[in-house]
């Protein structure tokens, strides 16, 4: 992904500055807000990436949209604009969150489901996370209707695929390898 190394460098610098000012929690809240706002707004994404829009307009817009954020965060806006990197702001925010969670020992479990998680399903997934890692995790739910049902769980470098799509693919593979079934094709 283009800009991910730069995003990591900026995120590390912001985390270091936030630590120096004892603002890691507050800046993390800012980064959650920034990441969610930009991810959910294609118009804002286009605005930040547009070479036609002047830098001072981008900075003023960000300061207006995120007027309640910490000074460390507004400083990030300025440095990204100054270095012509404002287009990676959402990746910097996302990377900061990952570094913050790592710093605080918080595991994040990415759970892909065909529909939003119910409290009962979330409890079941939390049990699976505990079984796989020995610890609980913060759950980040991603909706992907193509998995049909079940869920795909990813915690760190561990992945558990309990989706209906994966089970159907396994069944299809077994049928292809079965000599009795392949004679009927």
Automatic annotation (TrEMBL):
<keyword id="KW-0375">Hydrogen ion transport</keyword>
<keyword id="KW-1003">Cell membrane</keyword>
<keyword id="KW-0139">CF(1)</keyword>
<comment type="function">
    <text>This protein is part of the stalk that links CF(0) to CF(1). It either transmits conformational changes from CF(0) to CF(1) or is implicated in proton conduction.</text>
</comment>
<dbReference type="InterPro" id="IPR000711">
    <property type="entry name" value="ATPase_OSCP/dsu"/>
</dbReference>
<dbReference type="InterPro" id="IPR026015">
    <property type="entry name" value="ATP_synth_OSCP/delta_N_sf"/>
</dbReference>
<protein>
    <recommendedName>
        <fullName>ATP synthase subunit delta</fullName>
    </recommendedName>
</protein>
<comment type="function">
    <text>F(1)F(0) ATP synthase produces ATP from ADP in the presence of a proton or sodium gradient. F-type ATPases consist of two structural domains, F(1) containing the extramembraneous catalytic core and F(0) containing the membrane proton channel, linked together by a central stalk and a peripheral stalk. During catalysis, ATP synthesis in the catalytic domain of F(1) is coupled via a rotary mechanism of the central stalk subunits to proton translocation.</text>
</comment>
<comment type="similarity">
    <text>Belongs to the ATPase delta chain family.</text>
</comment>
<keyword id="KW-0813">Transport</keyword>
<keyword id="KW-0472">Membrane</keyword>
<keyword id="KW-0406">Ion transport</keyword>
<keyword id="KW-0066">ATP synthesis</keyword>
<dbReference type="Pfam" id="PF00213">
    <property type="entry name" value="OSCP"/>
</dbReference>
């Amino acid at each position: 992904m283009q800009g991910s190394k730069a995003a990591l460098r900026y995120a590390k610098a912001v985390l270091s500055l936030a630590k120096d000012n004892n603002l890691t929690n507050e800046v993390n809240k800012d980064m959650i807000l920034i990441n969610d706002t930009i991810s959910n707004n294609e118009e804002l994404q286009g605005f930040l990436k547009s070479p036609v829009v002047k830098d001072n307009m981008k900075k003023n817009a960000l300061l207006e949209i995120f007027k309640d954020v910490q000074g460390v965060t507004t400083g990030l806006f300025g440095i990204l604009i100054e270095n012509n990197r404002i287009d990676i702001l959402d990746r910097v925010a996302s990377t900061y969150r990952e570094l913050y969670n790592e710093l605080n020992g918080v595991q994040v479990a990415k759970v892909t489901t065909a529909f939003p998680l119910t409290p009962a399903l979330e409890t079941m997934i939390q049990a699976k996370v505990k079984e796989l890692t020995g610890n609980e995790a913060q759950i980040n739910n991603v909706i992907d209707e193509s998995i049909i049902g079940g869920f795909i769980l990813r915690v760190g470098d561990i992945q558990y695929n309990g989706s209906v799509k994966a089970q159907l693919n396994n069944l299809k593979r077994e049928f292809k390898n079965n000599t009795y079934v392949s004679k009927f094709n």
